[in-house]
Write a structure and sequence with these properties.
CATH class of the largest domain: Alpha Beta
Strand content: 15-25%
Radius of gyration: 26 Å
Helix content: 25-40%
Number of domains: 2
Structural class: alpha/beta
Number of strands: 22
Strand order of the largest sheet: 6-7-8-3-9-10
Oligomer: single chain
Distance between the termini: 42 Å
Length: about 575
């Protein structure tokens, strides 16, 4: 048996901070075999990305340095290479796919040219030959019209297609090792499945060795051959995936497995929160035939007038006090637009939004006043959602002062109560967002939402960017707050496993319309629409024996009105089933 293509021995990375030396990577040893997919898992700050950056000597700061250990690439010691020698390794032998393709693709350079650039530089091909090679790679990574799409720019593609373009750039020099750093974190579940299957297909066709950095153990279980668990720069556990998943040796690995939001088995029970009977209680929120359209800009003087795009198209929804309702669907399905329209942040084209009986379209000023004092929103990116110049204490004081419901003398005590509610230490009063982790910032964002004493909280993808253990903590926090404060929660997410574990009811949206609605157990166990079934089947499962889903969506027919369970018209979509090929 041939030796490993990559061998890491006692790799140590350190950085001097405030007069002392901090160890970022602590004597880590790993091997990567030819054709192997190695999954690096762990929380943010565990050292996953730092190890991979050390492999290609692209550490994020000149102060950070490799202080010990060995990195052998097919017997060559990379730690001894100078910058010129490393340039011949980067891209050519070790390629890298980054988490956010929008930040790493040149926005003013055609997709094809970005791929051809590496081919011309490293392989010495001419312009025409490099273009042909780039078109071939675009076809390999799943671009349907590579010849035409060669000349397109990154902004013309969806997130999934931009990620495919990033993979194409990494493959352009035919590397032996591909490092994929959280390549699917921000993608919908179906697109995620397509990207992971693409990586596995490329491994099989090209004989690639892949290092897959992720915090999702479902992805690791269905794609990787071996797993390495990291925490605080230390390697806690390493071995074949079946052994690590079935018999974890370290307590931290056990906690990761327990935090994974696996969907219950079909017919499995789940605790359902009690809500007020619909016959006795008035809905807290009613949405009736809501339409939100945005104008489409013309491309030039003679482009003609274009029809506006319907981001939300005929949505009707009723939410009772104390309910937790999940809204799921792919990017562009209208989830966030619906949330913004409910809060009065986006103008309504037609239809009605009623909050506690107050109609937004007919009595806008009064309804907005109620929404500002009785509804709040928790956003996806915890860092960008907080003012970087304010401490957490100053931010909460600002909200309480503007609301005017808390006497000035009692504001400090109220701030302490809010921190206690979200389980943040009072020491965070004087901390700014940049000095806090993502989970801590998200708790501060929830505290800000609670400062208005809301009856309704809308959480828009609030755990998408967080590690699996932090996700579990935030979900448990929401569950606890809902019980203690009788909150109504509208939870927007593309992670269906989390929605099933948290929510009472689920609403499935596609292209601005509701295609299915019902109790979580009923919808997840027996979806009535093919689109819902496709979303559910694309959820990565922590069982390594289950095959990775394809993530394909069924073709659509024209929308058609069908009655819901209450006999009222509900806009839905019928899906044509694929023809069976003999």
């Amino acid at each position: 048996m041939s030796g490993p293509v990559l061998s890491i021995r006692n790799l140590t990375v350190k950085v001097p901070i405030d007069g002392e030396t901090r160890t970022l990577i602590d004597a880590v040893s790993l091997d990567l075999a030819r054709g192997e997919i190695l999954g690096l898992v762990g929380e943010s700050g565990s050292g996953k990305s730092m190890i991979c950056r050390a492999l290609v000597k692209l550490l994020p700061s000149p102060a950070i340095a490799i202080t010990g250990g060995s990195i052998l690439l097919e017997g060559r010691e990379l730690t001894a290479f100078d910058e010129d020698a490393m340039r011949a390794v980067r891209g050519v032998e070790i390629g890298m796919i980054f988490q956010n393709p929008t930040s790493h693709l040149d926005p003013v350079m055609r997709i094809g040219d970005q791929i051809a650039e590496g081919i011309r530089y490293h392989q010495g091909l001419g312009r025409d030959q490099a273009r042909l090679a780039a078109v071939d790679i675009l076809g390999q990574v799943g671009f349907p019209h590579p010849e035409r799409q060669y000349d397109s720019y990154p902004h013309e593609f969806s997130g999934g297609m931009r990620q495919r373009a990033m993979i194409a750039v990494a493959l352009s020099c035919n590397p032996k090792i591909l490092i994929a750093d959280e390549p699917t974190t921000a993608l919908d579940v179906t697109i995620q499945a397509q990207i992971l299957r693409l990586l596995m297909d490329l491994r099989d066709k090209r004989g690639l060795s892949i290092i897959l950095i992720t915090h999702d153990l479902g992805i690791v279980a269905q794609t990787c051959d071996s797993i390495a668990v990291l925490r605080n720069g230390q390697l806690l556990e390493h071995g074949p995936k079946r052994r690590v998943l079935a018999d974890p040796q370290h307590a931290y690995t056990v906690s990761l497995l327990e935090s994974h939001p696996s969907t219950p088995q079909e017919g499995g029970s789940r605790a359902i929160a009690k809500v007020a009977p619909q016959s006795l209680a008035r809905p807290l929120l009613e949405v009736d035939d809501l339409v939100v359209r945005f104008p489409t800009p013309g491309l030039g003087l003679f482009s003609g007038k274009k029809k506006p795009v319907a981001a939300v198209n005929g949505v009707s929804l009723r939410i009772m006090p104390g309910e937790t309702v999940g809204i799921v669907g792919e990017s562009g399905s209208g989830k966030s637009t619906l949330a913004r329209a409910i809060l009065g942040l986006t103008p309504l084209t037609s239809g009605h939004v009623s909050f506690e009986g107050s109609e937004l379209a007919q009595n806008r000023r009064h309804t907005l006043a109620k929404l500002r004092t009785e509804a709040a929103m928790v956003f996806q990116d915890p860092y960008n959602a907080l003012n970087p110049r304010l401490t957490i204490g100053a931010m909460l004081a600002e909200v309480l002062t503007v609301q005017g419901n808390t006497p000035l003398a009692r504001i400090p005590a109220r701030i302490g109560e809010l921190l206690d509610l979200v389980e943040l230490d009072h020491a965070f009063l004087n901390r700014r967002p940049r000095s806090m982790s993502g989970g801590q910032c998200q708790r501060a964002g929830i505290a800000r939402a609670l400062a208005v004493n809301p009856k309704l909280i809308i959480a828009d993808e609030c755990v998408a960017a967080l590690d699996v253990t932090i996700q579990a903590q935030i979900i448990d926090l929401f569950r606890d707050l809902k019980t203690r404060m009788n909150l109504t929660l509208l939870f927007i997410s593309h992670d269906l496993a989390i929605v099933r574990n948290l929510c009472d009811r689920v609403v499935v949206m596609y292209r601005g319309e509701i295609v299915e609605e019902g109790r979580c157990g009923a919808v997840f166990d027996s979806p009535s629409h093919a689109y819902t079934a496709a979303l559910i089947s694309a959820i990565p499962d922590i069982d390594p024996d289950k095959p990775l889903p394809k993530g394909d969506l069924p073709p659509l027919s024209e929308p058609k009105a069908v009655p819901d369970l209450r006999g009222q018209p509900l806009i839905s979509m019928h899906y044509q089933q694929r023809e069976q090929r003999s």
